[in-house]
Write a structure and sequence with these properties.
With about 160 residues, this protein is mainly α. It has one domain: Winged helix-like DNA-binding domain superfamily/Winged helix DNA-binding domain (Arc Repressor Mutant, subunit A). It is about 60% helix and about 10% strand. The protein has helices at about 15-40, 45-55, 65-70, 75-85, 110-125, 135-150; strands at about 60-65, 90-95, 105. A hairpin with a 7-residue loop joins strand 2 and strand 3. The chain is globular and about 65 Å long. This is MarR family transcriptional regulator.
Length: about 160
C-alpha cells in the first residue's frame, strides 16, 4: 500500500522559503486571474495591460526604452506589445522631442477609454481574492516589501 502523500505546510518549511513560495504563488495566481478576466472581457492580455498601465500613469509620452526598464517584460516583448497596441489604435508612437534617435509612446484617446474599462475589470477580478481580503496595513506592508525587493534590482549580481 502506497502511503498517502502529505501536503506541505508552513511548519514544514523555513520561514524564508515559505515567504518566497507565497510570493511566487500569489504573483502567479493573481496574474492568471487578471489575465483571464482581461482577455475574456477586452481581448487584452495582461502583458498589454501592464504596458498600458505605465502609459496611463505617466503625464507625458514615455520613451520606449523606459517601458522596457519599468515593466516586467523584456525590451523585445515591450516592442511586440507596443506594435500590437498600435495596431489596435490604442497607443501612438511619436519621435522624441529630447532625443531624435528614440520614440515615445502614449495612449490614444481610444487607448485611455479601453484602459479605463480594463482597469475596472482588473479591480473587479482582484477584489474577492486580494483587495477585499487585505486591509490598509496589509497593503502598506506588501508595498514596503515590494519596494525593498525592487530597490536591489540591478545592484545584486545574478547567480
Amino acid at each position: 500500500m502506497t502511503p498517502k502523500a502529505k501536503k506541505l505546510t508552513q511548519a514544514d518549511m523555513p520561514e524564508a522559503d515559505f515567504a518566497f513560495y507565497g510570493l511566487v504563488w500569489a504573483g502567479t495566481t493573481l496574474t492568471e486571474r487578471v489575465d483571464r478576466a482581461l482577455t475574456k472581457a477586452h481581448d487584452l492580455p495582461v502583458s498589454w495591460f501592464e504596458v498600458m498601465l505605465w502609459l496611463a500613469t505617466s503625464p507625458e509620452p514615455v520613451p520606449a526604452s523606459v517601458l522596457g526598464n519599468s515593466t516586467m517584460l523584456s525590451r523585445s516583448q515591450v516592442s511586440r506589445v507596443v506594435d500590437a497596441l498600435q495596431g489596435r489604435g490604442l497607443v501612438a508612437r511619436t519621435p522624441s522631442a529630447r532625443d531624435a534617435r528614440s520614440v515615445e509612446v502614449s495612449l490614444t484617446e481610444e487607448g485611455r477609454r479601453v484602459f479605463a474599462e480594463a482597469d475596472a475589470t482588473r479591480r473587479e477580478a482582484l477584489a474577492p481574492v486580494f483587495t477585499d481580503l487585505l486591509d490598509a496595513q496589509d497593503l502598506a506592508a506588501l508595498g514596503a516589501v515590494w519596494r525593498k525587493l525592487k530597490a536591489v534590482k540591478g545592484k545584486v549580481a545574478a547567480p
